[in-house]
Write a structure and sequence with these properties.
Length: 431
């Protein structure tokens, strides 16, 4: 039996027949010594055993610092409206791993996911895979077995060296480029843009969903003769009389002022218009108006209203601050609930959100990389922000709701973990 890569001890034993999904996920966490280990060599070896040839489905790959999840959800809904069978792979999840893999909009069930894990385990042999790599290959297996026509794949981290990138995209979307995961991707937008542009392929169509692309993205697109649709050059988002419109070639759409980033919705519409040009504009509009994503400026509860958002970097916090500022009705005091991971730019997030927040309630995250309350408070203080500390997100949420009363609004943000804890209370009533 091969040894575990980091210790010489026997490798973990794969779950047997009848094992639960929880047992499989625990196993996936144990078989590779590094949680994030970018590179394609390992996953390519196993991919070729599982798929000697490129899968028959159309591959749509979505990268970006922020806006990926909204773009994927919009693509998924629009392509289903065109009569296509879709598979969507996203990460991370809020409550259950099954959220990461959807077929025709429905989360995968445990039995199907376990069967996919078993196939990947059989194929990998002695190849060590990370938790994300293993899950990515399982998603591919699931989509192939279900006969999915459109594989919508969200990059986990970066692009060039992310496991999703082992499949050549037939269309690529880069939702945005800003600074996050700097230790892995680089400390400036040009370097990070190069990593995101790694999902491009020679001659394929692609969309860049923001109006300030790094030169590195444009250079990679030009070098590979990518048919790039660029916001502000090839299509426009126009604000007219309080309404928002997309103009792309002869296509003109009304875009919803809903909870999702309008740039993500516009990019998805441009992508689907390229792929399915016969889909009527009226259908595009009605579908986009209904798209929602759990944890993306999601409103949960009344009196006071509570919004939860997974934004965890300054770029996302800037968008969130704008949404809070634009809430309809008279101005209301905004009570923030904030908890973060230790490797995030807490000071940058605080500076973006501080102009719209009246009062801060802080909590630790009891997860790996979670930021302790004392450290969170100290880093916020460095940005000129003070807040009241609590033992948990649930406690911070309760105090924030009390402080808001009926005239205020509560905004919970900072991490998928932060939102998951808040949603457990707000949706399920579980403290």
């Amino acid at each position: 039996m091969p040894s575990h890569p980091d210790s010489g001890r026997p490798a973990p034993v794969a779950p047997g027949v009848g094992a639960s999904l929880e047992q499989w996920l625990a196993y996936l966490e144990s078989i590779h010594p590094i949680g994030i280990d970018l590179g394609l060599d390992r996953v390519l070896l196993v991919l070729r055993r599982l798929f000697p040839h490129k899968p028959a489905g159309r591959i749509i790959t979505v990268a970006g610092t922020n806006g990926k999840g909204s773009t994927v959800a919009a693509l998924e809904a629009l392509l289903q409206a065109a009569g296509r069978r879709t598979g969507a792979y996203t990460s991370p999840h809020l409550h259950r791993y099954n959220e990461r893999i959807r077929i025709d909009g429905n989360d995968i069930d445990d039995a199907t996911l376990i069967r996919a894990f078993e196939r990947v385990e059989q194929a990998r042999g002695a190849v060590s895979l990370t938790y994300f790599e293993f899950g990515t290959l399982a998603a591919f297996v699931t989509f192939a077995e279900a006969g999915v026509e459109d594989w919508i794949l969200e990059v986990g981290l970066g692009g060039r060296l992310d496991a999703v990138n082992v499949l050549d995209a037939d269309l690529a979307v880069i939702a945005s480029v800003d600074i996050d995961h700097a230790d892995f991707l680089g400390h400036d937008r040009e370097t990070i843009g190069f990593e995101k542009a790694g999902i491009l392929r020679p001659g394929i169509p692609a969309i860049y969903a923001d109006d300030d692309p790094p030169r590195s993205v444009l250079q990679q697109a030009a070098a590979q003769r990518v048919a790039l649709a660029l916001l502000g050059r090839d299509y426009e988002i126009r604000h007219e009389g309080g309404a928002v419109y997309l103009q792309y070639q002869s296509l003109r759409l009304s875009l919803p002022a809903g909870p999702l980033p309008v740039k993500s919705l516009a990019a998805a519409a441009v992508a689907v218009h390229r792929l399915e040009p016969e889909l009527p504009p009226s259908t595009l509009e009605s579908v986009l108006a209904r798209v929602r994503v759990a944890g993306r400026f999601e409103r949960l509860g009344e009196a006071p209203p509570v919004y939860v958002d997974v934004g965890h970097n300054p770029h996302a916090a800037g968008w969130l601050a704008g949404r809070v500022r634009d809430l309809p009705g008279p101005p209301r005091k905004v009570i923030a609930v904030y908890a973060a991971l230790a490797d995030k730019d807490v000071e940058g997030v605080a500076l973006r959100m501080a102009p719209v927040v009246s009062e801060w309630h802080l909590a630790p995250l009891a997860v790996p990389r979670g930021l302790a309350l004392a450290d969170l408070s100290a880093r916020l203080a460095a940005a000129g922000v003070t807040g009241r500390g609590h033992d948990s997100v649930a406690d911070a949420l309760a105090a924030a709701k009390a402080a808001a009363g009926e005239d205020g609004v509560v905004v919970v943000f900072g991490s998928f973990f932060t939102v998951a804890e808040a949603r457990a209370v707000l949706v399920s009533g579980v403290p």
